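For the sake of transparency, this paper describes our internal protein records without simplification. Because each token names a local backbone shape, the row as a whole describes the fold. One such record is reproduced below, unchanged from the form in which we store it.
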Amino acid sequence: MTPHEPMFPGTFNVFHKGDCASDLSLFLFNDLKREDLEIVGFIKEQTVDAYGVLMVVLSREQKEITKSERSKIMLFLLAHDVIRVVEHVNNLKGATVFYLTMMDSSHRAIIRLLPQTIRVHPDVGMPVYKGVESITAFYPTREAFYETLRSISAIDYEIVKFESRHGTMDREVLRDPIPYPEGIVDDPNFFLNLFLSLEDKKTLRKMMEAGLSKIDELLDFIADKLPWLIPILKKIAELGHRTFPYFL
């Protein structure tokens, strides 16, 4: 795979009241008393008035999310103003996965406010914890990142620190440029990084690098070791987004 033009991974953290993920994260924290639960949202498709999100409700401590808790989460999502469709995709150890269709014509999502030159990759998730959403996008220049921050701040969104799984994150972070999109596999919120152990990722990567000669082994490995991943990958395939090429 030939590397593409380098882009700057830039992250800023915003308190976004009225956003379904921010509101749900506060519900998990305050009502369900689950301080271990974080949401990671993957933006999968956008139209003029709607967009889709593959939403992972994830325990930072790999604790079970009970059937009762999943039902309460589903009811909360169905009652939210901007959500029109909620599809339960899968449960796995310490997480549950939903697909949401949002109608945001009257309450624009933060991603809608990013300039056209900025790229949000569908396989790099946006974690949300205690009402704060951490948004990673890819910027052509350093100035583009800081100009975006100025424009977001000008419309009264609060840029704040974020309590990540790896420690407290600054209000905004701009990293060195990476070959885009190949370099996204190192992001901690890259799709497969959320779900697979390091050993599983190494094994899977070797099979995928071998290409069609290892396709039978690859399918057997997924069926044997990662069967819970199949419904999630099927959902992504339905949406027309390919995850695996960026894992290589």
